[in-house]
Structures are given as structure tokens and as C-alpha cells.
Specification:
The chain has about 110 residues and is mainly β. The protein is built from no helices and 10 strands. The protein is globular, with a radius of gyration of 13 Å.
């Protein structure tokens, strides 16, 4: 058994310049916890694999393709491969999301 204390993982550099902590990385999948402070957002991008987002804390906006929805704690959002998407936090509180990519990408994410 392997247990990871996510609070002790250091945020890594990323093109979005936000708090992004890789919490799981195997040959089959990858998971990152993204924390967006008020006013922060990810840049619009496309991933080469399917992604799902699970909202851990707060509320924010998820844009996938032409759709835009407000989401909150305990919601799970599916995002198909190669569809532009991003997360935004227009609110006053922290928006924290678990991002899971399955299978683990072998190509880079493409910023738009």
C-alpha cells in the first residue's frame, strides 16, 4: 500500500502558472490536484486523452468545447480527448479540483 499526503506535495511548474500538484503517476493514469485562487484560470488547452474533473472544494466554472457550466463540491465532470477545455475561478473562495487523465498521456497537452 502506498499513501500520499497531498498537502506535502510541492506544486510543480506548469504553463498555467497555478498551484498544480501531481499526486499520482503510473504507466496507466495520471492525477493532479489543481488549486485556483480567486480570479485564477487555466489557459484553454487540449489533452490527447480523456480527462475527468472531481471538485474537491469550492465552486468555479468548467468550459469544455462550446459548453460552460458552474460546478461545485462533489461534482464530477467528464472531458473527452482533444476537446478544448479550461477551469476558471471567478469567485471569492478557493476552487480545488482533482484532474485525472486516463490513460496516461504519451503526447503533450496543447495550449490554445
Amino acid at each position: 500500500m502506498k499513501i500520499t499526503d497531498v498537502s506535502k506535495i510541492v506544486s510543480g511548474p506548469n504553463p498555467h502558472h497555478v498551484d498544480a500538484r501531481k499526486v499520482y503517476d503510473s504507466p496507466h493514469a495520471m492525477a493532479v490536484v489543481i488549486t485556483l485562487q480567486p480570479g485564477e484560470a487555466l489557459k484553454k488547452h487540449m489533452t490527447p486523452v480523456d480527462v475527468f474533473f472531481y471538485v474537491l472544494d469550492g465552486s468555479g466554472i468548467v468550459e469544455i468545447g462550446d459548453e460552460k457550466e458552474s460546478v461545485g463540491k462533489d461534482m464530477l465532470i467528464e472531458s473527452p480527448a482533444r476537446i478544448p477545455h479550461r477551469l476558471l475561478n471567478p469567485g471569492a473562495g478557493v476552487f480545488r479540483v482533482l484532474v485525472v487523465k486516463v490513460p496516461k498521456p504519451t503526447e503533450e497537452t496543447k495550449l490554445l
